[in-house]
């Protein structure tokens, strides 16, 4: 088997099974990270607000607009306390990123400090399964 450039441990595997076992932890970690569905946050008024990210996630996953043939009508979800919650990016001209916080149940507290210049402001949220 060929080495992967830049991977100091690459090439130590001598069978396909060893390769599968070597990448399984990486794949397992990657599958535990996901983006919740898109939600709208009203940024038309300055102030401090809360939004329950967990409730937004479960509401949208429970009631999809369309499903593929043979799929269940709802998407499986995790319990609120089975997840870690992260904001990985927020537009700092709209959100006070220094005071943002998320509790253990997925409630995000945020402060709007300015309005978006083009009707949109970005905030990226990531969920990680504990």
Name some characteristics of this structure.
about 130 residues; extended; alpha+beta; 2 helices
Give the topology.
Elements: H1 16-31, E1 33-34, E2 47-52, H2 53-62, E3 83-90, E4 101-102, E5 107-112, E6 123-129
Antiparallel strand pairs: 1-6, 2-5, 3-6, 4-5
Please provide a written account of the structure:
There is one protein chain. The chain is of the alpha+beta class and 130 residues long. The chain has 2 domains: 1-31, no CATH class; 32-129, no CATH class. 20% of the residues lie in helices and 24% in strands. It has 2 helices and 6 strands. The chain has helices at 16-31, 53-62; strands spanning 33-34, 47-52, 83-90, 101-102, 107-112, 123-129. The strands form 2 sheets. It has a 3-stranded antiparallel beta sheet with strand order 1-6-3. The chain has a 3-stranded antiparallel beta sheet with strand order 2-5-4. It starts with 15 loop residues before the first helix and ends with a strand. The mean pLDDT is 85.
Short recap of the structure:
The chain has 130 residues and is of the alpha+beta class. It folds into 2 domains: 1-31, no CATH class; 32-129, no CATH class.
| SSE series | HEEHEEEE
Helix coverage percent: 10-25%
Largest sheet: 3 strands, antiparallel
Strand order of the largest sheet: 1-6-3
Gyration radius (Cα, Å) is 20 Å
Assembly form of the protein:
single chain
* Beta strand count: 6
How far the N terminus sits from the C terminus, by CA atoms, comes to 34 Å
Rough outline: extended
Chain-averaged pLDDT: 85
- The computed structural class is alpha+beta
Unreliable segments of 5+ consecutive residues: none
């Amino acid at each position: 088997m060929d080495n992967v450039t830049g991977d100091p441990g690459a090439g130590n595997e001598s069978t396909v099974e060893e390769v599968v076992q070597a990448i399984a932890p990486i794949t397992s970690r990657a599958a535990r990270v996901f983006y919740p569905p898109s939600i709208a946050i009203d940024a038309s008024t300055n102030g401090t607000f809360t939004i329950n990210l967990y409730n937004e996630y479960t509401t949208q996953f429970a009631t999809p607009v369309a499903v593929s043939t043979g799929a269940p009508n709802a998407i499986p979800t995790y319990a609120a306390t089975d997840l870690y919650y992260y904001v990985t990016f927020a537009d700092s001209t709209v959100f006070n990123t220094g005071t943002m916080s998320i509790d253990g149940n997925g409630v995000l507290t945020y402060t709007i400090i300015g309005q978006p210049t083009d009707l949109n402001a970005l905030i990226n949220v990531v969920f990680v399964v504990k």
